[in-house]
Amino acid sequence: MNLFDVYPLNDIEIVKAAGSTVWDSNGQEYLDLYGGHAVISIGHTHPHYVRRLTDQLNKVGFYSNSVKIPLQVALAEKLGKVSGKTDNQLFLCNSGAEANENALKLASFYNNRKKVIAFKGAFHGRTSLAVSATDNPKIIAPVNETENIAFLPFNDVAALKEAFAAYGNDISAVIIEGIQGVGGIREASVEFLQAIRTLCDQYNAVYIADSVQCGYGRTGLFYSHDYSGVEADIYTMAKGMGNGFPIGAISIASKFKPWHGMLGTTFGGNHLASAAALAVLEVMEQDNLMQNAEEVGNYLITELRKFKEVKEVRGRGLMIGIELPEELSAVKKNLLFKHHIFTGEAKPNVIRLLPALNLKKEQADHFLERFKLALKD
Ligand SMILES: Cc1ncc(COP(=O)(O)O)c(C=O)c1O
Questions:
Q1: CATH number of 47-286
Q2: Inter-axis angle of helices 271-286 and 289-304, to 10 degrees?
Q3: Which segments of the chain belong to CATH 3.90.1150.10?
Q4: For ligand 1, what atom is nearest to the CA of residue 130?
Q5: How far is the CA of 168 from the centre of ligand 1 (A)?
Q6: What's the whole-number mean pLDDT along residues 64-79?
Q7: What pLDDT, on a 0 to 100 scale, did the predictor assign at position 281?
Q8: Per-residue pLDDT for 377 more than 90?
Q9: 183 CB less than 6 Å from ligand 1?
Q10: Before 348, cis peptide (omega within 30)?
């Protein structure tokens, strides 16, 4: 059997990893500023993480949600504390798409409505409703097509107000990334997030903060939406949550009341996944990783803005987009194959930096030196 060939691959096999360094099968070392799509939050093979997962595996790796799993309770407590949302409730699942799917479903159960507002440039995942709320017709299969999603321009308060005035009582939810990731590292304005909060309150719609990529401490705040000073009703998360172990979740405001069977999953919140997520939060707390993300991120953003070749540097903390002109479209490839630095990309010509939150200043400096060379390659 062959693999179903849906991924364009770089001809590199990673065989070893530690912190923000990875090695390929030829022994070549790379600086990892991508963390495999923003997933590696506390660094590859972090000793505390490896120990906690190994210990857990030696006790019990999995049992379903039909029995008590105290690790889930400990995770809910810790996540509530670290994110500053101690009154919220936690539902655990397995991925970002699943988190958004459950958030949209919960909103619809809550207000018994169907319409969802999403935004141009949004990416919310590939499951049925999450992909329908994603602004990319190429990946929406006919069976996912629905009239229930309306795409509005990003950061356009007037268009949002108009939509609510026209059909506000049909709107179940507004879903928005605090910083669009796949869309090219574009930040929602404070004014826009405040308008979403006000209109959702006015019309009893649900504000869903997709924090799958921009959340979990990456920007220096736990949820990137926090900088706006408004609270969402549901926060969705995944990626950095398990440092590579598949886990997703939604943090749910206390006004939502659960009933048995309302949401569910076989694997979500299993023993190993919960241990992985706890290990991540423990390291984040012990090593002040949100502060490091803010400091090293600010440093990188400031230094990158000094390059005259760069069109624009966007983002916050360690979620950074470097927009380059068309003639420098080879820089990303050169960074990987000549300078041995992993970065991400967004269309049309944006380099995305999504490294581990404990990236060191020396590693940031190494990147800046190499980036300077890559601009001249
Ligand atoms: C903002 C955002 N939401 C949702 C998802 C989907 O997450 P997953 O791939 O874990 O389903 C992604 C993935 O890139 C994302 O960036």
A1: 3.40.640.10
A2: 70
A3: 288-376
A4: 4
A5: 27
A6: 98
A7: 98
A8: no
A9: no
A10: yes
